[in-house]
Design a protein that fits this description.
The chain is about 75% helix and about 0% strand. The chain is mostly helical and about 110 residues long. The protein is flat.
């Protein structure tokens, strides 16, 4: 029981670390840094799909359904990281009206 609690706590700490790292990378001035972790998660999902192709005990419809479910489940972290990225990058968008006002002030 104690080992399970320690494992869960360690897993939650690692997940919190990834979220903090994503927030930090998303707030960098270079917009590409924030896309590193989502691209890694996307690559992992493709790796999981290609791992399924080694299994040949199903018919075509079963394999296609398994591909779709695997792709959707393994891309949940990708979607979460992209939501964090776009939420953090929101403040970097230039305000068009403020820009026009500054130009008119000149």
């Amino acid at each position: 029981m104690i080992n399970a609690s320690i494992s869960i706590f360690a897993l939650l700490a690692i997940l919190a670390g990834f979220v903090c790292l994503q927030i930090f990378l998303s707030k960098c001035k270079n917009k590409w840094f924030g896309l590193v972790l989502p691209v890694i998660c996307l690559a992992y999902s493709f790796l999981a799909i290609f791992a399924i192709t080694a299994y040949d005990g199903m018919n075509t419809a079963g394999i296609a359904a398994l591909f779709a479910v695997t792709f959707l489940i393994t891309n949940i972290p990708t979607a979460v990281l992209l939501v964090i990225y776009f939420a953090c990058r929101e403040k970097f968008k230039p305000n068009k009206e403020m820009e026009k006002m500054n130009i008119q002030d000149l």
